[in-house]
Amino acid sequence: MSGKRSTKRRLWRWRSNPLRRHDDIVEAWILLVMWVVILVGGAILWTVTARAADQEFAWQRTDRHAVPAVLLTDAPQSTSTGNDGYRTPAKVRWTAPDGTTRTAHTLVPSGLRSGTTITVWQDGRGALSTQPPGPAEAGVEAVLFGGGAASGFSGLVYATAALARWRLDRRRYDQWGAEWDAIGPRWDQRTG
After folding, report:
1. Of 153, 132, 129, which is closest to residue 53 (Cα–Cα)?
2. What value, to the nearest 5°, has the Cα angle with vertex 163 and ends 160 and 169?
3. Which of 19, 73, 111, 173 is most open to solvent, judged by the fewest CB atoms within 10 Å of its CB?
4. What parts of the sequence cross the membrane (predicted)?
């Protein structure tokens, strides 16, 4: 029985009622439209964003390639204790896809001496880049990007609906104030 009562309480704006105001109907429509837009628009935005991110990651995997590079400067030893994978900037030399030799600074494992051969990643133009995410990592990141976009969109829609409901509340308060100003003086009369 309590489930039925809860449903009646939530849907009171949609039932015919002599106490229902026009603003109550407007608020019911605002809530309905808000939830439809959040659910449908959020799902569409999530899907589109996730697919776009996944396509970008797939393009990165085809465009970027690992190449050997030679350290031209020493990479300072990390001052932290343990093997924490600390990386430090150092100058490296590698061969670009067009056959030219290039040099640049990049992050390399700490403690390496100049002349050491390491692996760096370059894009199709021969510029240094980061290692592209693997298929599993790219899938997770694409889903997270999609979820973030859908969450931001949902928050924006919710905030817009909350602002509209706030405006309705202000209007109702003003109406109640005007009605009280009209009815209030009658209550001060004493009955004999």
Report:
1. 132
2. 145
3. 19
4. 25-48, 142-164
